[in-house]
Amino acid sequence: MRFLFLRCKEVKMNKIALIVRREYLTRVRKKSFIIMSIVGPLLFALIFVVPIWLASREGDEKIIEILDESGYFRGKFGSNGAVSFTYLDNTIEEAKNDLTSKSSYGLLYIPKFDLDDPGGFTFFAEKHPSLEIQASLERLLKNEIEEIKLNKSGIDKEKLNRIKTNIKLNIINVSDKGETEGDVTVATVAGYTSALLIYFFIFLYGVQTLRGVIEEKTSRIVEIIISSVKPFQLMMGKIIGIGAVGLTQLILWASFTFLIQQAVLGFYNIDLSKSRQMEIIQDSEEVANQGIIVQEFFEKLGTVNFPLLIGMFLFYFLTAYMFYGSLFAAVGSAVDNDSDAQQFQLPITLPLIFSIMLLAAILRDPHGNLAFWTSVIPFTSPVVMMMRIPFDPPAWQIVLSMIFMIAGFIASTWFAGRIYRIGILMHGAKVNYKILVKWFMMRN
Amino acid sequence: MNILTADNIQKSYGDFKALKDISLSIPEGSIFGLLGPNGAGKTTFIRIITQIIAADQGSIFMNNEPLNIKHIQEIGYLPEERGLYKKMKVGEHLLYLAQLKGLSKSESLDRIKMWFRKFEIAGWWGKKVEDLSKGMQQKIQFIATVLHNPRLIILDEPFSGFDPINVNIIKDEILNLAVEGSTIIFSTHRMESVEELCDHIALINKSEMILEGSKKQIKENNKSNTFDVEHKFVIDEIDEGFEIQSRNELEDGFYRTSIKIVNGRGPNELLKSLIEKVEVHSFVEKIPSMNEIFISTVQGGENE
Asked: What is the CATH number of the domain that holds B19?
């Protein structure tokens, strides 16, 4: 008897495994999956690389003419690779008239002005100047006038610079295990990234589950399959199979992104030294600062507990996907096409979108009441808890959240299974929530 | 010996009673016609046998054993609403379905190849399902149904959507399978195929069983003791106990008359009485077609 029972169980498991295998292979072999696996990391890398590339790029040299009636700025503007300055001596009318015939980028007109109330600075140009040029010209004027004022009031600039102070708080987390260095920026970035990734994957693969179920229903294969396996097995096989596809995609993305990032970082260090040499208008100081911030950021990355973050990420990734994926499967089973699915998708997607909206509030107070409750309730906990993990929430809260999450996905697959078993056999029925409840209550 | 017995099966969907107290026995090796108008409950009953849904009450025995999960492998089911995964290749698809039925991979491959040879479709292995015509897809569905050599094959409206050539191919296969010992449940509302294929019949109407038995027995029970007689010369009048239902004039002074025996007298007596009056050329008992029985029983039920 016991032997028979075991054999039965084995056959059951094999069937789910067969379904998982099919769901997995048909998706992984698709061209779109392969393309996504390559394009995704490239996109990530682009987001990361483009701003740096833009900042360090050398554009065409622009000539800016300066007509300085005040006499304060003669010789103060230095040229660099991107912009060069020429000084004019004619009147403003002549200079303006000449402007159209010349290839210069524009004309900066500095009238005689009152040092206590400077004004009247004008930039004449054929085309609207870029925000960058405008900002840097303004900054140049401001710095220069400030320096003149300093001189006039007898303050030594060196002294002033020494007085100026930069403060950066060192964050040390004190716990039973001792002190660990923390960094809010790093924690925020780590939290946001993992929370958004979870959200994104639940959505992407949840909808795939829904589509898969609808496809089985509309192609009418479903009744053939469920004469060999239980509807619940088919549903679980599909959910697990698609989840495995998601995990594969995630791992591929993570490894590709890591490779590209490593390559770019190496490249970027060289670039950084180059950009340091650039002067004035290229905001070299800022780029250099950015570089230092980026470097610091990567150094501080070490302060995040990565094994915990990654472990938790995988846990919430899988359980949240099971939780939401089964609900998506239930919706797919109830409808006949994608457009009918929308009205039932809304109650599933709302808590997800809500949890993303919560992130800013969680960030303000990562250990408050709101953060606690939303990171324990399974509808929002995957996204919210991932945001909190880098801020070291108490261990008991993590454990509680995990227990609720496991209970949550068991409950949701049970709930979904009850709707699914009836839904997949119903064709052309106009479904509303009342009918769904009826299906749920129905005896098998 | 019955391969399947159903006792007092009941099933409701909410307030709607889909099956009321259905009992029937399906003899092993028979081709069993499960008849009834659309919506009568045929598919519900089949889904209970295939364990897709469970009955509210009653029990089903297969080979004298209560129906259980291991019987799934002994049943092949071609549902009325049927299709295939469009993006899958034919060979892989059949392999998948066979493995879901519990066949090993190598066994599945052997059987698929055997059927490919039989239907002369050896070149289809790598074709995508969506590239096949509807008729070709139906052949694949049929193969998928019988691939695991089921002892009980359930075909729900198997010919709907088939072209006449494929209907004949499938009909021949059904007869072959029956000869080889499989039992076939054949659900349909098309009487011509029932007449041709089935030897046992159950008629379900409005969730209730209204007829069950062997085709011969049912016809016997439903015949009206009417005889078609072809004869020369006119029958002027007829003896007591016989009743003329209709008469048609044929060529060259021949007539065809339908005569019903109303009291307990036998056909010989009718013949004897006719011979005295006219020259009898043929004397045939009128056997009702399944179609006539179906319509009169279903309508009779409605008139009650």
From this structure: 3.40.50.300
Banded pLDDT at A47 (limits 50, 70, 90):
confident
Nearest chain B alpha carbon to A214: B85
| C-beta atoms of B100 and A15 within 8 A | yes
Q: If you average pLDDT over residues B155-161, what whole number do you get? A: 85
Which residues of chain A are within 8 Å of residue B42 when distances are taken between CB atoms? none
* A98-116 tens-digit pLDDT: 777 777 788 888 888 888 8
What is the model's pTM? 0.76
Q: How far apart are the C-alpha atoms of B31 and B178, rounded to whole Å?
A: 7
Which one, of A313, A314, A348, lies nearest residue A331 by Cα? A348
Question: How many structural domains comprise chain B?
Answer: 2
Judge if ipTM > 0.85.
no
Strand, coil or helix: B32 = strand
- Residue B274: domain span: 224-286
Residues 6+ away with beta carbon under 8 Å from A216? A222, A225, A234, A238, A424, B85
Regarding whether B37 and B18 lie in a shared domain, the answer is yes
Only one residue has tokens 């791992």, namely A251
Within the 217-246 window of chain A, which residues sit less than 8 Å (CB to CB) from chain B?
219-221, 223-229, 231
The residue among A223, A230, A426 with the most chain B CBs within 10 A of its CB, best to mutate, is A223
B61 and B206 co-located in one domain: yes
Q: What's the gap in Å between the CA of A246 and the closest CA on chain B?
A: 20
Nearest neighbour of B52 by CB, restricted to A15, A220, A227? A227
Rounded Cα gap, residues A405 and A236, in angstroms: 17
Report pLDDT for A293: 60
